[in-house]
Design goal:
mainly alpha, Chromosomal Replication Initiator Protein Dnaa, Chain: A, 6 helices
């Protein structure tokens, strides 16, 4: 298992726990519901913060295109900045930020 794969699995488990979504669903090629999409968007942002390219992230998460990763990161940033993220998403952002020491990235207040 590569370093990227290990980080992806670990982050999917943490995000899944806080968003009540199975890690397998987050990493799946299938679309899933809005909660799966939101969880996947958070995972994209965590991996991008760790320096992985959008194509690398897309390949490890359901073999997605780099533009899907970019869209997900933009969605998280847009919701956070506009303040219209629901409580579950906001809570997951906070918990994942704390776990990966990303508080400066996602100030959700």
């Amino acid at each position: 298992m590569t370093k990227l794969e290990k980080l992806t699995q670990e982050a999917a488990e943490i995000i899944g726990l806080h968003m009540c979504v199975r890690p397998e669903a987050i990493l799946s090629r299938q679309r899933g519901g809005w909660e799966v999409s939101d969880a996947r968007f958070i995972l994209y942002a965590v991996l991008a913060f760790h320096g992985y390219s959008y194509p690398e992230i897309g390949r490890v998460i359901g073999n997605r295109d780099r533009t899907s990763v970019l869209h997900g990161i933009n969605q998280i940033n847009e919701r956070r900045l506009l303040g219209n993220s629901e409580r579950r998403l906001k809570g997951a952002l906070i918990k994942v930020s704390e776990h990966y020491n990303l508080e400066h990235l996602w100030d959700t207040e």
